[in-house]
Design a protein that fits this description.
Layout lengths: L2 H32 L3 E2 L2 E2 L7 H16 L2 H11 L14 H4 L2 E3 L4 H4 L8 H7 L7 E7 L3 E2 L5 E2 L5 E7 L4 E8 L1 H4 L11 H16 L8 E5 L4 H10 L5 H6 L1 E4 L3 H7 L5 H9 L1 H4 L2 E13 L2 E12 L3
Parallel strand pairs: 8-9
Antiparallel strand pairs: 1-2, 3-4, 4-7, 5-6, 7-8, 9-12, 10-11, 11-12
Helix pairs in contact: 2-3, 2-11, 2-12, 8-12
C-alpha cells in the first residue's frame, strides 16, 4: 500500500481516537465535578444503590402513581410497609405544628440563583423565571407529639424554588431530618414530599392557581451519591453535546425507572402518590436529564414532567 495512503489512514485513526477520548473526557467531567466524596464539608455516603435495585424501586413507584384506592395502597405497602396511601399532612399549618420555621431570604441566593444557566431551559418549558420564589424551611423548633413526648429539633432543611404561576418546583438544597438526626426521635412531618407539597399549596394560593397545575419538578445538581451513581450508569457514554440538548427517558423504560428509583427522583413520585386527593391521578411521563454550564463546570439537571394518568 502506498506510504501516503498509510499515513492518511493512520492520521484518520488517530483523529477518531482523539474524538472518542474527547467524548469520554467530556462525559466524565460532569461526574468528576460532582462525584466528590465531600460536599459542603459532609461525606455524601456510599453509593450502595445498584442499578437493578433502582429499577425495581422505580417500577413500583411508577405503578403506584397510576393506581388508585386499594390497588394503590397494596403497591405502596409493598414499597414501605405501614405507610398510608394518603398523607395526613394536608394543611399549611402542619409546618408550624411540627416545628418547621421558614428561613429569611438570602439576598445572594435570591439574586440570579442559577446565574443564567437555566435561561434556555426556562424558555423551552414556558417558565417565567421572575415568578420563581425561593423558600427554605428548617425543622428548628422542639415540639410535643400527640403522646405528650418532646421531640427535639433535627435541623433538617428543605430549600427549593416554587412557581405557582407556571407550575414548577425546583428541588435545590435539601437535607432531611432523617439524614441529619438518624438516631433521635423525629417529627412525623419529615419527608421532602410532604414539606414541599405544603409549600406548593401556599404558592398556588398566592398565585391564584389550582394545586393540580403542577407541570414540572426539576432537580438541580443532584449531589446524592446513590443518585449520581445511577446517573453515571444510565448516561454512560453520552457526550456533552447530547446532554446539552437533553436526554429524554420515557415512562416504562429501564432508564426512566432507574432514575425514578433514586433518592433524588422518587420524592416527586411520593408527593403525587400520597396526595392523589389533591392532585388527582397524576404520573411522571418523562424524565429529562440536561447538562448546563454553571460556574465554570457542567452541571446536571433532572426534569420530571407531570401529567395526568391516561385512562
Amino acid at each position: 500500500m502506498d506510504r501516503k495512503i498509510l499515513s492518511l489512514l493512520a492520521f484518520a485513526w488517530l483523529f477518531v481516537l482523539s474524538l472518542t477520548h474527547a467524548i469520554a473526557i467530556d462525559h466524565l467531567t460532569i461526574f468528576d465535578n460532582t462525584l466528590d466524596n465531600v460536599h459542603d464539608g459532609k461525606f455524601l455516603g456510599a453509593r450502595d444503590l445498584t442499578l437493578q435495585q433502582a429499577i425495581a424501586k422505580g417500577t413500583l413507584l411508577e405503578k403506584a402513581m397510576e393506581k388508585s384506592g386499594a390497588e394503590a395502597q397494596v403497591v405502596v405497602s409493598s414499597i414501605r410497609n405501614g405507610v398510608p396511601l394518603n398523607s395526613p399532612f394536608t394543611s399549611y399549618s402542619d409546618l408550624e405544628r411540627w416545628g418547621w420555621e421558614e428561613q429569611g431570604p438570602d439576598s445572594e441566593e435570591e439574586d440570579d440563583l442559577y446565574h443564567g444557566s437555566l435561561d434556555q431551559t426556562f424558555s423551552q418549558l414556558g417558565i417565567d423565571e421572575c415568578q420563581n420564589e425561593y423558600v427554605s424551611w428548617m425543622q428548628e423548633n422542639a415540639v410535643q407529639n400527640d403522646n405528650g413526648q418532646t421531640i427535639q429539633p433535627s435541623y433538617g432543611q428543605y430549600s427549593n424554588s416554587f412557581n405557582g404561576y407556571n407550575g414548577l418546583i425546583i428541588s435545590d438544597d435539601n437535607n432531611s431530618p432523617a439524614s441529619l438526626a438518624p438516631n433521635q426521635r423525629r417529627v412525623p412531618l419529615e419527608n421532602w414530599s410532604d414539606v414541599v407539597f405544603l409549600q406548593w399549596l401556599k404558592s398556588c394560593e398566592n398565585a391564584g392557581t389550582n394545586i393540580d397545575s403542577l407541570r414540572y419538578v426539576m432537580r438541580w445538581n443532584p449531589t446524592n451519591g446513590d443518585t449520581q451513581g445511577i446517573l453515571s450508569r444510565v448516561l454512560a457514554g453520552v457526550p456533552i453535546s447530547r446532554l446539552k440538548v437533553g436526554v429524554a427517558l420515557n415512562k416504562g423504560t429501564s432508564g426512566y425507572r432507574a432514575l425514578l428509583g433514586t433518592p433524588n427522583g422518587r420524592g416527586a413520585a411520593w408527593m403525587l402518590i400520597q396526595h392523589k386527593r389533591q392532585f388527582g391521578l397524576k404520573t411522571i411521563p418523562q424524565i429529562m436529564v440536561r447538562a448546563v454550564w454553571f460556574q465554570n463546570k457542567w452541571t446536571l439537571v433532572m426534569i420530571q414532567s407531570i401529567g395526568n394518568v391516561s385512562s
